[in-house]
Each structure stands twice: as structure tokens, then as C-alpha cells.
Amino acid sequence: MVPEGSLVAAVSGGGDSVALLLLLTSTPRKVVVAHLDHSLRSDSAGDAQWVKALAERLGYPYESEKLDVAQIAGERGENLEATARDLRYGFLAKVAKKHRAQAILTAHTEDDQAETVLLQLLQGTGRGLGMRPKRGKVVRPLLEVSRSTLRTYLRSKNQGWLEDVSNADTSLDRNFLRHEIFPRLKARFPQTQTALARFAAISQLDDEALDPLAEQLLLRDGRWPCPAYRIAPLVQAPAGLRRRALRQMLEQIKLRPEASWITQLERALQGEAFTLPEGWQVRRRDGALFLIPPVVDAFPPWRGSRLPQPGDQIDLPDGRVRLVDFFTEHSVPTELKQVWPVRAVGDSVQEVWNLWPESEDLEHMRTALEQARLALQNGEVPIGAVVVWDGEELAVAHNQVEQSRDATAHAELIALQKALLKQQAKVLPGATVYITLEPCAMCFGALMEAQVRRVIYAVENLKAGAVTVHRLKPPFEWEGGWLERESAKLLRDFFAQKRSAS
Q1: DSSP code for 178
Q2: What is the CA radius of gyration of the chain?
Q3: Contacts of 243 (CB under 8 A, 6+ apart)
């Protein structure tokens, strides 16, 4: 479990970490002792000196740092224990980088694991239960060993350790569980610690299987300067996978995935707006869920640009319109309208970052939409497709299921066949395929076999979508939401007409 190479051992001076260090003396590998002085007690400097002396006696290099954790937590407005944990791992990572260590070892025990599981359950955390034996460079080799076993080992070696008096402070949640709750639980249920640790191990095996599946539900909509995700795959998924994905969504923006916030995100998927801690605003617009930071600084530098101003207008092929209306038409959330860069002469806007003039992707999607309208005129489900390579449209097509009496005559399949014929090739590794409706599993397989580079679609296929419904993992770039409103309207009108006719 521990990678080859040099190691960093986190040593506080407590019994568990001292036992870990002594156990490491049996390995020939290089070990660096790392100690962080949290400055939470007046005698904390003495602990640092004690650990330094132990490291020197055992012949190990020693690294230390002193931080005022309480002051930093106050400045951040964060929980003291959480801040101490974050600063400790940050310090250990720096030591590992300095010494090019392959792993960071911590001395968490079975007792710590049991306490962590119970604490997480009581606090209502939305993340996976317990500490993992290995996460990144951090390895916890003693998670299956009890604290009492380590104390027995230290006594057999005549090795002392430090007792942190703050560990007796039951105003801290973990200490309260350790001193007030666990003794009573173990008196009634002697295997409490082992059972909770085993529960964590089983839960983590589930995480290993389910987390990658949940991650597939997070389809980023890359057209926006802030995190935005397609909603349909999340809504269509089983609740368990969806909540895992929402947890990952929070973790991606560096927020603790509390269960209550995950529940709020589920409501946001249905259109309820709310604000997360640290000022993140959650808004739904059409088929995307936006997570808007308190300060939007994701726009790249754009020479000659300025922020939108009241009265701004933009010249479009169909006439002059207000910039705010242009933003609304393009589903820009209200919170982004005021900070979206534009280039203008006076109040006449000439360019809008990433939106105007239209990108080639949008132009090709408009061609696909024209094909969908042709399908509608022919009594077909209005779906159109375009295959493009190096800026050239190799083929266009629309659904021909009714016309050909062939259930496989889907727009993208026909377009692929035309493009392959034109190129006299069996694959299209550089192609982008534009489709007004998310491909079904059949067409997904064809796109995969044709080795296309990108697939861009307008609206999710809630009946048979390869990703949204069948949760297939695209081996190519996969983007949704382009001309979503127009494509969705064509489909709604078609099926409404079919229902009224019947």
C-alpha cells in the first residue's frame, strides 16, 4: 500500500505517531519527520523540541513549522478543527515536495476511524464515510490497528510519548465522542470501534465503484466562464448517483459537501435559486445549472473590452437589439450580465466575448437546425446532423425513419455514412458531429466506431439518450446545450401536433 521511495512521517509526539515512527525504523527507506506546531497551547514549542530530539536520536531528518491556527481560523471564519486539518496537510505536502517523498504517512488508528465515522454521521456530512487508507500521497497504514495495541507496543520498547492536554477538552466534538460517548458504547457493544471501521471500509468499496459513475453525470457546459453543468443527466439518474455527483460538484469548487447543501442543489435542479457558503450563487438557466462565484474573474484578458453599460445595443442581422435582451436570448444568468466583456463604440456593441460574432460551432449547429426543419416538413421527428472536418461540412442529413421505413435511419447515422463515402475512409478521427438531439445508444456506437473527435448536440434525449438515459461514457469530447431552445421548440411542436392529430 505504501509506494516505493522516501517517506514523510507526520509526528505530533502523541502515542500513535511515535509508534508509527518506531515501526518505520525497521525499514531501510529514507524517512523525514514532519511536525507542525499549531500554537494552540503555551507549551506547544516544547512538543516541537521533543519530536526533534526523537527524530535526531533515531537518525531521521526533521522539518517543522509554526502557525497560529486559531488566528488563521478566525480570519477565515472557519471551524478550528477543520482549519487545523487543512493547514497540517498543506504543511506535510510542502515537506513531501521539498524532499521528493513518494508518500506522507499519518498515524490514524482504528479508534480514529470509528470516531470519524460516527462524527460524520452525526454532522450529516454528504461525503463518503471514514478516512481512506490512501488518498493521493497520504497513506494511513495503521487504520486497522487499535490505539491500545500501539500503546502496548510503545511500552514494550520503553518508549515514552506526549499527552496533549487539549485532547481532554470535551467542548470539541471529537473529544466529546472519545471521552463521553465511546466508553458507554463499548461497555454495551464491545466491538463498536471494529464495527464502525468495518462499515467505513465497506462504504469506501462502494465509493470506488459508484464515484466514477457519478462523475460521468457531471457534464460541464464549457461555453460559460464559471462552472455550469447539464441538468438532464443529473435529473434522469438514480437519486443515489445524483447525490454523489452533487457532492463532487461541491468538492470541485472547494466547498465541504454538507448534506443540507446537496439537498439544496437537488432543489436548484428544479429551478430554485439559492446561495451557497462563501457567496456562490446557484442558478438554473434552461438546461444548465450555474455555480456563480462571488467574484467572477474567469474571463480571460480581452484587449479593448469593457463591461456592459445601461443603454448598450448590438447590431444583429435581424436588426438592432438591446444588449440585455441579447444576453437573455443566449441564456446568460443575470449575475453574469453585468460582468460579461464587450467591445463597443459608444453604446454600439460590436463584439461580445464568446457569443458574438458567432463561433463556427454555432454556425454549424444552425445548419443542423435547418436540417431538423426539413425533417419536420417531411413528417419526420425534427432532428438534423452535420459532419465537419477542418472547417468543411462533409455531410448534412436529417431523420428519414418514416420515409425509408427504417428505424435506424437517424440523422447522425446517415450523415456519418455520407461523410465516410465522401472521404473514401472507414473512420473520421478529426471530425466534429453536430446534432440537434443527443444521440441514442445506436448512434453513439456508430460515432465511437467512426472515431470522431467531438460531438456537439442541442438538447438532451430524455427517452433514449446515450449519456442522459443509458449513462454511456463518451470516448470523445461531448458538449450539449447549443441552440437548445430552438431545437427543443421544434421537438415540442412536433409531438404536440402528433398528439392533437391522434
Answers
A1: I
A2: 29
A3: 126, 262, 266
Q: Mean pLDDT per segment of 10 residues, for the chain of length 502 residues?
A: 82 95 92 91 87 95 90 81 87 95 95 92 76 93 95 96 84 89 94 93 92 95 90 96 95 87 94 90 94 79 90 91 92 88 92 92 96 95 97 96 96 97 95 98 97 97 96 96 94 88 72
**How far apart, in Å, do the first and last CA atoms of the chain sit?**
65
**From CA 187, how far away is CA 413, in angstroms rounded?**
67
Environment class of residue 81 by beta-carbon count within 10 Å: exposed (0-12), middle (13-18) or buried (19+)?
A: middle
pLDDT of residue 497: 85
Strands (DSSP E) found in 399-453: 432-437
For residue 357, the model assigns a pLDDT of 93
What's the grid cell of residue 351? Answer: 463584439
The residues, ordered by sequence, that sit 6+ positions from 242 with a Cβ below 8 Å of its Cβ are 214, 217, 234, 235, 266
User: Which pTM was predicted?
Assistant: 0.80
3-state DSSP helix/strand/coil % of the chain, to nearest 5: 45, 20, 35
3-state secondary structure of 361: helix
pLDDT of residue 171: 85
| Cα 452 from Cα 414, distance rounded (Å) | 15
Q: What are phi and psi of 231, to 5 degrees?
A: -85, -40
| Residues 6+ away with beta carbon under 8 Å from 268 | 274, 282, 283, 284, 289
Residues 109 and 146: beta-carbon distance below 8 Å: yes
Distance CA 14, CA 107 (A): 10
Nearest to 494 by CA among 398, 411, 373, 407: 373
**What sign results for the dihedral spanned by CA atoms 185, 191, 193, 197?**
negative
Return the number of other C-beta atoms located less than 10 Å from residue 116's C-beta. Answer: 20
Cell for 303?
484587449
